[in-house]
Amino acid sequence: MKRMLPLFLLLAAGQAQADSNSDYRAGSDFAHQIKGQGTGSIRNFNPQESIPGYNANPDETKYYGGVTAGGDSGLKNDGTTQWATGETGKTITESFMNKPKDILSPDAPFIEKGRDVVNRADSIVGNTGQQCSAQEINRSEFTNYTCERDTTVEEYCTRTATITGDWRETTEVRTYTLTAFSFSRSGKQIVFSVTVPEAGTISSASLNVITQNYLWNSRAGFMNTIFNMTWGSTITLGGATGMMLSKGQILSGTSCSGNGSCTGTLDDRIFNELTSGRTTFTLTLVMQVKDREWIPRVEWVESCPFNKADGVLKGTECSEPGGTKTGVMEGKPWSLTEACWAYRDKYVTQSADNGTCQAYVDNPACTLATRQCAFYSGEGTCLHEYATYSCESKTSGKVMICGGDVFCLDGECDKAQSGKSNDFGEAVSQLAALAAAGKDVAALNGIDVRAFTGQAKFCKKAAAGYSNCCKDSGWGQDIGLAKCSSDEKALAKAKTNKLTVSVGEFCSKKVLGVCLEKKRSYCQFDSKLAQIVQQQGRNGQLHISFGSSKHPDCRGITVDELQQIKFDQLDLTNFYEDLMNNQKIPDSGALTEKVKEQIADQLRQAGK
Fold first, then answer.
1. Are strands 153-178 and 244-245 parallel, antiparallel or unpaired?
2. Which of 306-320, 478-492, 586-600 shows the lowest mean pLDDT across its residues?
3. Which domains does the chain have, with CATH numbers?
């Protein structure tokens, strides 16, 4: 065993003794020279011109099932049979079994050189030499990813205060002073009259007589009261209490001198005193007058461009500051005070759902680059959007700089310097897209030829938000999803797998003008390639829509349209990510162990 270990080290060291400068440089230059030539050769390759006896349909085509085939169409079984029974298989087996084993000599020149390299390893590739220095180089590469998600929809209602009011019947006590008496004669009697200014009920009344002369004990009757007038005085009209008067009513009374005997001559003298203004009457009325009072109040007028049942109230703000407003109604002032005269209420009618963007939102290396609305509500609000994230991936490598030469120590530095090429992934993806399109075309036999045909799919969401079968995430945690159909659950899985294109949203059930249920529509495709070509090619490049929300148009792409699509401008990242993830690459650890076993076996043979 002690002899085996040095030999193993010698073998490894012998490889390093080669002229590393020229070999590395030659290999690196050659790699850069041929970079990208493979895809160009594939695109321009014409097998009929280059391969003698080329047959486009050999017997072996039975093993090819297309890019979406799930099995090997019997290739493995036929190969096993030929290996066991065919002449070629037998010859290879016999050669392998009868081949003599190689015996390694410890004194071989390449092993001697290996020992020398081992002894000088630290000075050759380490960081102890005077002319060598180790450095790390880094490179960032940015990749764009497109995804779909629901937006947060905030809508607003306004409440505005308008001032209105009501009339209220009231009774007021008012005092009227009437001096505009008129005087006339009825025979020997003197008639005096005055007009009532307002309707009401008399609480009290008095007549004030002012005169400079004797009124000859005239007897008068006025407002249900009999009294005598001699000199100036104020007479209480007790009989007037309780009288109901109307506005404009004429109140009249009579008087006659000599205690009512009407002497005539004396009445003429008194009449002259009254008409000349030397004697005056003043009537004072205290009345209960009916009136009405205007009581102002606020009525709130609400304006909502949507159904409030669809949303959740998230906040209220005052849009017109409060204060006191005043006015006059029928000559009477009024005032009204409010803390706020107008409000703006914010409702969330749709919560944000990151949908297929969740992985990029969670990745700190990804930033939002662009956003584009996929479809709008009836009120013009964006409900669903396409988002493009730019994600950074860093490549770092270790190099050793010795004099003017650069050595790559870990195999990653060349990537970090020149960048990682996606030519292969893009080329394979484009070829796969064309192959899938060709398969669709061939299946139609030239009749109404279309490729990448999809199907219209729908899901429902209660308008009040209690059940949303169109959610892009959180399907395992929402009890409201129990009522979702199997088709809706399958649609959710297709959305997760990026097989759909969102078309729109519409009200599917309405009662008395109120929407009770909404539906969303999608075009669902059989593969990511179909989804990419439809969304980016048909819609993005050719600007052919997917129809309306109620009637999605998920038709296939015609041959003419297919020829117009620029496949080199399609972002096929979603597809060739799956392609690269599905590669069957042998485990590096297993390969290392296999090599160790083979070397150890050879060393054991050499020691015998």
1. unpaired
2. 586-600
3. 1-15+76-119+586-608 (no CATH), 168-291 (2.60.120), 424-571 (no CATH)
